[in-house]
Amino acid sequence: MKFEEFGFSDVLLEALDYMGFQKATPIQEQAIPQINDGHDMLASAQTGTGKTAAFILPILNKLVNHNEGNTQVLVIVPTRELALQIDQQIQAFSYMTDVSSIPLYGGGDGQEWVTQQRALKNGVNIVVATPGKLISFIKNKNFSTSTIKYLILDEADRMLDIGFYDDIVDIIKQLPEERQTLLFSATMPQNIIKLSRTILKNPKEIKIAISKPAEKILQVSYLCYDAQKVKLLVSLIKDKPNYKSIIVFCSTKKSVSTIVSALKKKNLNAEAISSDLDQSEREKVMLRFRARETRILVATDVISRGIDIKDINLVVNHDTPRDAEDYVHRIGRTARAEQSGVAITFVSPDDMKYFHGIEKLIEKEIIKLNVPEELGASPEWNVRHRKSRNNGNNRRGRPQRHNSRNKKR
After folding, report:
1. Distance (Å, rounded) from C-alpha 406 to C-alpha 367?
2. Residue (of 21, 57, 51, 391) closest to 227 by Cα position
3. What does the alpha-carbon distance between residue 386 and residue 173 come to, in Å, rounded to a whole number?
4. Which of 35, 42, 227, 322 fits a disulfide with 58 by CB distance 3.0 to 4.6 angstroms?
5. Spatial CA neighbour of 249 closest among 180, 187, 326
6. Residue 128 DSSP one-character state
7. What is the pLDDT of residues 207-217, one digit of tens each?
8. CB under 8 Å to 366, separation ≥6 — which residues?
């Protein structure tokens, strides 16, 4: 389906043509007509499906046709990085229109606050905000919710994971009841369903099936004990000097610190990023990584969604994701734009059932390897394995050098 078929204004179509947008993605085909017709929406779509354009383009078209000169659109997102990313897309789409936008987020300096305050006072049409910063502006009477006609919640599941449920509910209570509300989420856990029933009116529901990992991603796993993981990671990275851009995902902030220290001791160029860093520092770390000043980025899931980092050679899951869809998001950082990439996952005995769930989701059995002999024995593959007493320090007996890629389960 071509964008001309959606009834967009000429000025918006001109911008899309200039940006090379020609054919709509499935989420855009399904969502745009419903949003054009004024329906509320509950949409399940992951990063990379074109969902930002799916909700922004029809709303922009409404503003082009009827711009009241005040703030009519509020987009709420979980992180500063995503706020900046969405605002950049809005500015690109609206370049040839009179529609204005601004991102509101924490972690900036005093001048940033003044700039945002002035923009709100002068009248900006679209605000893209993180919940905490938005509440600050509302409490200080720098932002009025009375003129909002369109509310969009993006990455809603991630916002709830971070703990923004109450904040979101408080914000929504202050919005006009007569509005169009769009809720986009990569997954649909019960708390999202609960929220949708509270804030949406007779919504149209759209579910875009989660994309399988790109074929050009070489997916490999290592069966290992927790005590072997850091040494295994160091040996793998030291063995791959041609990999110039690497992301290591961890489940805890403590693991992030431990891994970065271990990598630096081996003279490997690594930096950490987690919610422990304030927003401005996180932005600096990301800029250094994008500029290839930092080779290895060790992170919690704070960056697994919604961040476009090109040319990632290697993604390592130091901890197997508990949620199978998080695995797809994590390894989706590599093999972009038709490039190839490698994704390696460390699987401990307690992780095996979760890794089995990942294989079922992506409908593919992933190669399973043992750790190098100098690190000791690997655990046996067993998806029914209960908590193991072997922490990887028991080295009695010969390592079990099996390769279970062909084992029947």
Report:
1. 9
2. 391
3. 46
4. 35
5. 326
6. E
7. 887 667 777 88
8. 219, 220, 221, 345, 355, 358, 359
Structure-derived torsion over alpha carbons of residues 344, 347, 353, 354, reported in degrees to the nearest 10: -50
Is pLDDT of 331 > 90? no
Four-point Cα dihedral 64, 66, 68, 71, nearest 10? -60
Tell me the per-residue pLDDT of 188-210, one tens digit each, with 9 for 90 and over.
888 899 999 999 999 999 988 76
Q: Measured between alpha carbons, how far is 220 from 283 in angstroms, rounded to an integer?
A: 30
In angstroms, how far is the first alpha carbon of the chain from the final one? Answer: 42
Q: Per the structure block, which two tokens stand in for 79?
A: 């992180």
What's the pLDDT at 400? Answer: 40
Residue bearing tokens 């809720």: 183
CA distance 117 to 148: 17
Give the residue range(s) of CATH 3.40.50.300 domains in the chain. Answer: 3-207, 217-406
Structure tokens, 311: 């040319």
Strand partners, 222: 346, 369
The two structure tokens encoding residue 101: 């936008």
Q: What is the mean pLDDT of residues 79-104?
A: 90
State CA 15 to chain mean position distance. 26
Find residue 223's DSSP bridge partners: 347, 370
Going by C-alpha positions, the residue among 19, 81, 10 that lies closest to residue 308 is 81
Mean pLDDT, all residues of the chain: 85
pLDDT grade, residue 337 (50/70/90)? low
Please tell me whether the overall predicted TM-score, pTM, comes out greater than 0.85 for this model: no
Q: Is the pLDDT of residue 408 over 80?
A: no
Query: pLDDT-derived band of residue 109, with 50, 70 and 90 as boundaries?
Result: low
DSSP 8-state secondary structure symbol assigned to residue 222: E
The CATH number of the domain covering residues in 217-406: 3.40.50.300
The token pair at 360 is 């079922």
Assigned fold of 3-207: Rossmann fold (3.40.50)
Q: Residue 56, class by beta-carbon neighbours within 10 Å (0-12 exposed, 13-18 middle, 19+ buried)?
A: buried
Query: Of all helices (H) and strands (E), which one includes residue 263?
Result: helix 253-265
Does residue 329 sit in helix, strand or coil? helix
In the block, residue with structure tokens 């080295």: 395
Greatest Cα pair distance in the chain? 76
Residues 6+ apart with CB under 8 A from 350: 385, 387, 388
